Structures are given as structure tokens and as C-alpha cells.
């Protein structure tokens, strides 16, 4: 199993950050690194979309189904994603008070058949989207609850397929 982490200090309370992370349908409003879509019928089931860039510049998109594992307000939120027999990811945000703000630790534990065959695949792909998610979370939380205005003409990609090459 490989464990990857990314962390950031956010000038907001753990409660505020937890509320942002727990509002799954609002992810597209603040996060263009990943997209999480709840299942309409099963509230703990989700689809997680991610677009990452390989070291050679090639974009890779995935969509994995999963389940919310842990929601300990206001200090932890976690889910498990994967394709049985191939790859599993356990992703979590641990929130710890830090002065007037919060230390946010984003962890991804990767296991399964694919990571054993390609041990450098996920360590090369996940750090940039993880860091991007944390930067977006910081911006959102430090806006003190105001909604960001959408940028006209800018279409963000949320874990969808990469653009077509011409």
C-alpha cells in the first residue's frame, strides 16, 4: 500500500472546513481538480472523478465509485473508492485546530493489483490534484462563506474526459 499526503493551513475553523467538504453536491462550485457526485438513491455512495497530468504532460481521467466511510464532525471525513480486484483508494481529510485556523491533512492510501504492477503510477499522478484541491479548499473556506462568482466563458473540467486533441 502507498500512502500519499498533502497538507495546508487554512484560516478558518475546522467546523467551516468540514461543512465545505461534507457538502458533496457543491464541489463543482469550488474545486476543479476533482468532482464527487452523490448517488441519488444511496446517500453514502459516490462517484469520484479526477483529472491528473502525467509527468510527460498527458492528461488522464478516472471515474471511480465508492462509499463514504467516516464523517466525524468536525475533524475527519473519508471515503473508499475503487474497482474490485484492481485498485482501491482510501481518501481522507483530517482537520486539526492550528492557532486561529486549521491544519488540513489530505491522505490517499492506494492498494490493489494495479499499484503493485505499476508502483509509480499513482505517486506520479495524485500529488498535483491533491494539492490543487487543498488550494481550492483554502480559497473557499477563507472567503468566509461567500459564493464565488463564475468566470464567464471558462469551462472547468471536473474529472471528465480530457479535451479532444486537434
From TrEMBL:
InterPro entries: Polyketide_cyclase/dehydratase, START-like_dom_sf. It comes from Brevundimonas aurifodinae. Residues 141-166 are annotated as: Disordered. This is SRPBCC family protein. Residues 154-166 have a biased composition (Basic residues). It comes from the Bacteria.
Amino acid at each position: 500500500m502507498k500512502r500519499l499526503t498533502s497538507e495546508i493551513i487554512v484560516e478558518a475553523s475546522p467546523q467551516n472546513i468540514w461543512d465545505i467538504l461534507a457538502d458533496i453536491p457543491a464541489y463543482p462550485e469550488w474545486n476543479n481538480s476533482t468532482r464527487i457526485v452523490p448517488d441519488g438513491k444511496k446517500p453514502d455512495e459516490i462517484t469520484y472523478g479526477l483529472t491528473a497530468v502525467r509527468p510527460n504532460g498527458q492528461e488522464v481521467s478516472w471515474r471511480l465509485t465508492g462509499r463514504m466511510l467516516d464523517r466525524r464532525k468536525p475533524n475527519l471525513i473519508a471515503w473508499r473508492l475503487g474497482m474490485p480486484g484492481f485498485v482501491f483508494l482510501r481518501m481522507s481529510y483530517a482537520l486539526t485546530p492550528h492557532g486561529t485556523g486549521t491544519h488540513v491533512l489530505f491522505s490517499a492510501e492506494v492498494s490493489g493489483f494495479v499499484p503493485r504492477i505499476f508502483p509509480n503510477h499513482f505517486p506520479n499522478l495524485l500529488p498535483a490534484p491533491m494539492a490543487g484541491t487543498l488550494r481550492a479548499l483554502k480559497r473557499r473556506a477563507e472567503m468566509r462563506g461567500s459564493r464565488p462568482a463564475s468566470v464567464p466563458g471558462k469551462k472547468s473540467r471536473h474529472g471528465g474526459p480530457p479535451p479532444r486533441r486537434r
